Amino acid sequence: MSLNVEHASVRTLPSEKPLRLLDNAGHAVTGSATGGFGLPDTETLLELYRKMVVARRFDVQVTALTKQGRLATYPSAYGQEACEIGAVAALAAEDWLFPTYRDSIALLTRGIEPADILQSFRGDWHNGYDQHAHRTAAQATPLATQALHAVGLSHAARLRHDPIVALTFLGDGATSEGDAHEAFNFAAVWQTPTVFVVQNNQFAISVPLERQTRAATLADKAVGYGMPGYHVDGNDIAAMYAVTSAAVERARSGGGPTLIEGVTYRIEAHTNSDDPTRYRAARDVEHWKRRDPIERLEKFLVSEGALTEAMRTEITDAAEALAARTRDVMTTEAELDPLELFDHVYGRERAALLEQRAALEAEIAAGAFASHEGAAR
Amino acid sequence: MTATATSTPAAEASAAPTQLTMAGALNAALRDAMAADDRVIVYGEDVGPLGGVFRVTDGLQAEFGDQRIWDSPLAESGIIGTAVGMAMYGMRPVVEMQFDAFSYPAFEQMVSHVAKMRNRTKGRVTLPMVVRIPCAGAIGGVEHHSDSSESYWASTPGLTVVMPSNPADAYSMLREAIDSDDPVVFMEPKSRYWSKAPLALPVTTAPMDRAEVVREGADVTLIGYGPTVRTALEAAEAAAAEGLSIEVVDLRSLSPFDDETVGASVRKTSRAAVIHEAAQFGGYGAEVAARVTERNFHHLAAPVLRIAGFDIPFPSPKLEEYHLPTADRVLAALDTWEWDA
């Protein structure tokens, strides 16, 4: 197909040691461990730091609201801030993001309001934000399915000669799904401007990575599809940002897709209904808590004299303000219109749905659901 | 069967009718849709240089180039999933599943995303896409090449499911499906691909969500769709010789169901039977029988019958004639009614 740029298939395996630009103590890494990537400038790192602090506060607040029964469920991203935000921050406003259920803090980074992000988790409607306005697809629950949507959308953009890139997140477990394979393969064959970011947070609910794959790294899989793969320290936001930025730029300039594995850890449970003590040791969690992505960057910025006490206060205040706003919107009961159930199934009117709508309207008018009106959630 | 087809003014200005197969009509519909709107793109397995295993896409790549129509990797979920993304971006993908039983790997994309996208996003994201599925048997296909998956799609809210039975409808309904802002499962009865009718294109038949009375009758309403419309017409012909007047309704649309047209016919004849190739148990005929009964019970002189395939996996080519509903089997079923009661 003439759309394909001439390209040699990639045969180089990703580095066995995850690529990093900052070590766990917050020191800049030199030598081959950086994979040739350079540290982002200080201004960029400060902005990434701010985004992580705000996102962490949001995540902690939402988990607390879940425990208070304000949300039906919430999959926390605590500990994965570098992976999520480092990748999303590499996108331009016109690029598209295809997130999963765990990527609420990525949505926050895209500028989506807390109330809109949480609409599905509180049970009001399946999806609450404007996809086109934010260039962000609805959060996908079926695993790896959204990766194909990202491939399709970015291919369509290319057919239209629009310089748009689509980035999609997958979990480590999702790489076992057939749709992940099909998405990687379609993207590589069509050379679409797609970036796949696998957040390897070590567990698919309770199943550890070694029961998910025999591959040495998930980034190795890229080689089999003929695209570049990068094995990155997912708790190093400098590395996640640098590697994703390069992948986005290559995609935008017609160089095709990239697979990036960010090695990270899910500190919280899978969701509020999960019990992680049944499948992982407390000492492992403690080990990963000591590799916290925010602390790592903070140490670096402080040692560089880039993060002042005044800035830290200002960032904390902004995070607290967002948390307060999140509490406010989640303690305010949304107005729901049950008759809207029928409004968005088809664009074209359907007699059967109009009949069912009228029947529900009559039931409501007759007081069949009176006890539900105004009831606290 | 094309008696209800009406020519558009453009068609009247064009050439005199020529014999056209259903495959040819579908090919013309794709060509005209691609010429009319450059957002229409076509892809799937073998649809490019080969022109599709049934030649429905014959010549289109030569005409429109490989950025409008191309061969995809061999993966049905990938075909549907990427079409979702392309439709999100404003394209109007028309994708092919090659054979009905090959569509099952795409079931999750169809049910979880294609069907639900408009709903879950409150109408903000719509998917103007068409999934073409060659369907049903009677072509001597080996295992997994003859199936009837229509009930799976028809019972999924959010999908529109249509099945033409003749070349004129094939052309008109495919054009309408491509123009639709909702995703459409467009089922093409394989055994009718080579059926011919005199046709001057473009042709516009009834809206695709309407059923059509394709033969008037007074005593019985036979309801068929796709391949079984011909079976119903054969049964009606044979019955006429015995003095029984059968009306035949071609459903054309499985979802939505045209209660109005079907109901009007049943109230006229007071007897109804539905014919399909798919297994009877839990099949589409159960929905037809239930709807007809619920809405017309007091007009019915007898229970609504189903003449369907057996409740077995689709048989081997040399045995499929025993499985598929025939005109004789339809007439035998009608004989089970107590006609003088």
Automatic annotation (TrEMBL), chain A:
GO terms for molecular function: magnesium ion binding; pyruvate dehydrogenase (acetyl-transferring) activity. Pfam families: E1_dh. It is an enzyme of class 1 (oxidoreductase). GO terms for biological process: branched-chain amino acid catabolic process. Its EC number is 1.2.4.1. The keyword Oxidoreductase applies. Residues 50-321 form the Dehydrogenase E1 component domain. Keywords: Oxidoreductase, Pyruvate, Thiamine pyrophosphate. Its cofactor is thiamine diphosphate. PANTHER family: 2-OXOISOVALERATE DEHYDROGENASE SUBUNIT ALPHA, MITOCHONDRIAL (PTHR43380:SF1). This is Pyruvate dehydrogenase E1 component alpha subunit. It comes from Agromyces hippuratus.
Automatic annotation (TrEMBL), chain B:
Its cofactor is thiamine diphosphate. InterPro entries: THDP-binding, Transketo_C/PFOR_II, Transketolase-like_Pyr-bd, Transketolase_C. It comes from the Bacteria. One of its GO terms (molecular function) is magnesium ion binding. Keywords: Oxidoreductase, Pyruvate. Pfam families: Transket_pyr (PF02779), Transketolase_C (PF02780). Its EC number is 1.2.4.4. One of its GO terms (biological process) is branched-chain amino acid catabolic process. Residues 20-195 form the Transketolase-like pyrimidine-binding domain. This is 3-methyl-2-oxobutanoate dehydrogenase (2-methylpropanoyl-transferring).
